[in-house]
Write a structure and sequence with these properties.
The protein is mainly alpha-helical. The chain has one domain. About 95% of the residues lie in helices and about 0% in strands.
Length: about 30
């Protein structure tokens, strides 16, 4: 049970990092 929670957390962090990497350049272009 504990391992599943860790895996879910890692997936969440990984997806969050991908979304941030994809959205930050777009946000910077909007501000530029």
């Amino acid at each position: 049970m504990g391992e599943q929670k860790i895996i879910n957390t890692l997936i969440g962090v990984f997806v969050g990092a991908i979304l941030a990497a994809a959205l930050i350049p777009v946000a910077l272009q909007q501000l530029a």
